[in-house]
Design brief:
The chain is 64% helix and 11% strand. The chain contains 21 helices and ten strands. The strands form two sheets. It has a six-stranded mixed sheet with strand order 6-7-8-3-9-10, with helices on both faces. It has a four-stranded antiparallel sheet with strand order 2-1-4-5, with helices on one face. Helix 1 packs across helix 2 and helix 16 crosses helix 18. The longest helix is centred in the middle third of the chain and has 51 residues. It starts with a helix and ends with a helix.
């Protein structure tokens, strides 16, 4: 019930409308069903004249009195009208409730996804480094849908409970003794069957846990399809996925078993109570046949509603683990929210300086009090072995990481005092990994930014040396590049990514092995472009390519946590020796 209360607090307006509609529907149905008693009494006793009930008991029936009070004759026709009108009104209010439930279900899933996305985008970079992509994909895809189903089952359960109250209220007016006895017996049955609810809840938790593991491993495998196929190791992937799928199937089997077992036991148990009640009412308590028939109709509905409430609660228990798992991910991301620095607006007129900066990953030192200058309007290149800390330096300058000691100064201002959002908007970043989307060249360059025009995209493509091949594509910039740019060569993909970094005309251009996929001729073309740009934009490059080192104004070699400024007079032989 904690989950249902959480949903009601999160969506109070929709929940109030739904509850009011359900309450009115339950009351209308209950009132309309009371018309059955005088109708059945007349049929059994045959005491009516022209449809007017003259039976002693029925003259005092409150519905008959109410009709007479408003000036209507309590004839059979009028009672039928009351019954039909009640059913029609009930259906109308149920429709209103279900409409708002349907709208809210869609909103629950959307709001949860947006909350997760907002929390993730606001989290520290180190938080991402520890999160498996597959787990986040599961949190974004399956868990919101399952959580919204929990809301559906919860509100439907409320509807059944309200109907249940209406049926009980009417039944009490006919025979409070029989109604109380039935309720006690029914609740005893539900108490015994709660075992299957607990079984379903455990199966739901297991399903959530296995889905996380399955999607995490599936994501990793899909990212490694090419090397797996190249080495003939597809069977390894199949073995891993099969193992997790078997675990998921077992959880689903227990979930299905608990649901079907609950239904299978509920039905005969409640039907047995109906039969027993019919015997006790007629034979033992000698109640009028009409009262017994209406009472059994109402109490059978009471038991049906009780069974429905328990089944819906079971369904909600199955789905609620997805909601709590998703909330745990959101809350963890919120606890790791990234500070946005200070309020100062950044400038980049003089340059960037790392002053005695140290940084460690899990107590493993990467940078040890390094000093490094990146002059504005120049090209600075970082070289060194893998793991020497080149990417860490870049992440520190971007503000994705914070130095554990020392300062990062931008035009002499500590980066911690600068608004990080404004600072990052001045940066163009080209990663080593291929991050193209399954969309057009234009969208991959502009990311759909409405402030960027076709002319901006063309300029960026020309600057990146990509315009020649893009203009020759069948639809030019409107050509779809395929999944991760599969329809393009490696060099073409890299140049589009460089164009993406240039399109908003950044003040600082960072290239992390951006030319590694290019052939020597294209590398030289990119380097010529960079040479023409470096008087307008500050460029920081991580590279293992001699061409990038040869055009650099400054070259820093990172080794043993230190940055050594090297001479700009580099030969290819010296470059190879350095890395």
């Amino acid at each position: 019930m904690r989950l249902l209360i959480r949903f009601l607090k999160a969506y109070p307006k929709q929940s109030i409308i739904v509850l009011l509609a359900l309450i009115v529907a339950g009351l209308v149905e209950g009132i309309s069903l009371t018309a059955l008693l005088p109708m059945l009494s007349a049929a059994v006793e045959q005491s009516g004249q022209d449809g007017i009930f003259l039976g002693k008991d029925q003259k005092n029936h409150y519905l008959v009195q109410a009709l007479r009070w408003i000036g209507l004759s309590p004839s059979i026709g009028m009672l039928i009208i009351v019954l039909v009108a009640g059913i029609v009104l009930r259906s109308g209010f149920i429709l209103i409730a279900k409409k708002y439930v349907g709208y809210t279900i869609a909103r629950v899933a959307t709001d949860l996804r947006l909350s997760l996305l907002k929390a993730l985008l606001s989290a520290r970079w180190l938080f991402y480094l520890k999160q498996p992509i597959g787990m986040l994909a599961n949190a974004m895809s399956t868990e919101p849908d399952r959580a919204s189903k929990a809301y559906l089952h919860g509100t439907t359960m409320l509807a059944a409970m309200i109907q249940l109250m209406a049926y009980i209220g009417v039944a009490l007016t006919i025979s409070w003794k029989a109604t109380v006895a039935y309720m006690i017996a029914s609740l005893a049955i539900l108490f015994v069957l709660r075992y299957f609810v607990r079984m379903a809840r455990k199966a739901g938790k297991r399903q959530t846990k296995v889905l996380k593991a399955l999607l995490r491993q599936l994501t990793d495998i899909l990212q490694s399809v090419k090397p797996l196929k190249a080495m003939g190791r597809e069977d390894l992937a199949d073995r891993v996925i099969s193992t997790e799928t078997i675990r998921l199937n077992k959880a689903l089997e227990r979930q299905v078993l608990s649901k079907e077992a609950l239904k299978a036991i509920q039905t005969p148990a409640f039907m047995g109570l109906v039969g027993l009640g019919f015997y006790v009412g007629l034979v033992q308590w000698r109640m009028p046949a009409a009262e017994v028939m209406v009472l059994l109709l109402l109490l059978s509905r009471v038991m049906t509603s009780l069974g429905k409430v328990q089944s819906l609660y079971q369904n909600m228990a199955v789905c609620e683990s997805a909601y709590w798992s998703l909330q745990a991910t959101i809350e963890e991301a919120q606890r790791n929210v990234e500070p946005l620095g200070g309020e100062l607006e950044p400038t980049l007129m003089r340059g960037i300086r790392l002053e005695n900066v140290s940084f460690s990953y899990d107590r493993k030192p990467v940078l040890r009090a390094i000093n490094l200058d990146i002059p504005a309007a120049q090209l600075t290149t970082l070289i060194g072995f893998s793991g020497a800390g080149k990417t860490t330096v870049v992440d520190l300058i971007i503000g994705l990481l914070n130095p554990q000691s020392g300062k990062i100064l931008v035009d002499g201002v500590d980066l911690s005092q600068i608004n990080l959002r404004s600072w990052r908007r001045m940066i163009g970043y080209v990663p080593q990994d291929n991050l193209l989307l399954h969309d057009t060249v234009l969208y991959n360059v502009t990311f759909g930014d409405p402030s960027l025009s076709l002319a901006d995209a063309e300029w960026a493509l020309r600057a990146a040396g990509a315009w020649e091949f893009v203009s020759s594509l069948p639809q030019g910039m409107e050509t779809v590049v395929g999944e991760r740019g599969a329809r393009l060569s490696g060099g073409q993909r890299q140049r589009i990514m460089i164009a993406r970094a240039l399109v908003h005309r950044p003040k600082l251009l960072i290239l992390d092995e951006a030319t590694s996929a290019l052939d020597p001729e294209n590398q030289r073309a990119i380097c010529r472009t960079l040479e023409s740009l470096k008087n307008e934009v500050t460029i920081l490059a991580i590279s293992h390519q001699p061409a990038m080192v040869e055009i650099a104004d400054r070259v820093y070699q990172l080794e043993d946590g230190q940055a050594v400024l090297s001479s700009s007079n580099w030969s290819e032989k010296r470059f190879v020796e350095a890395i």
